[in-house]
Amino acid sequence: HGWYRGLWWAVVLSLVMGMVSQGVAADREEIDALNILRATMLAMRRALLGLAIGPNHILVDGNRCPDLGGCGLNCSMEAIVGGDALREEISAASILAKTARDAAMRRLDAIYPAYGVAGHKGYGTAAHREALGSKGPCPIHRRSFAPVRACLERAT
Fold first, then answer.
1. CB of 71 within 8 A of CB of 55?
2. Burial letters for 27-48: b for 16+ Cβ neighbours within 10 Å, e otherwise?
């Protein structure tokens, strides 16, 4: 069964790579309009709709699954809190997603070098908050995020 397990992993990873390469994430405007949770659910739905082969079962790292109504997908779903530490499939997908995110942050860092996004990856580190406070938000900052909103309010 070793060769079967290896083949299975190759299929899982190719599906995840396809999802990552399609750029299915929600953008800043969608996150601001919907909120982070709804935008995440939208991105998951897009990823599933973009699959060439429909899954039999979906594992979600979190406490809820996306609504698949009207998608034409007929499969089971399972939300697993802390799933990246509990399931190999989720862990592999998490690594690929973070690798794609890091590459996107490096590209954005070349456009907005003053913010250091290649280093902090968008997390609210002290360096990120300092750059935000001294330079104000740039087009990639979510306007609904409290520190960004505070900067915009101070500027007006």
1. no
2. eeebbbeeeeeebbbbbbbbbb
Token duo for residue 66: 């996306």
Asked whether the beta carbons of 117 and 91 are under 8 A apart, the reply is no
**pTM of the model as a whole:** 0.77
Q: How far apart are CA 144 and CA 76, in angstroms?
A: 33
* Residue 50: partners with Cβ closer than 8 Å, 6 or more residues away: 18, 19, 22, 24
pLDDT digits (tens, 9 = 90+) for 83-131: 989 988 888 888 878 888 888 899 999 999 999 999 999 898 999 999 9
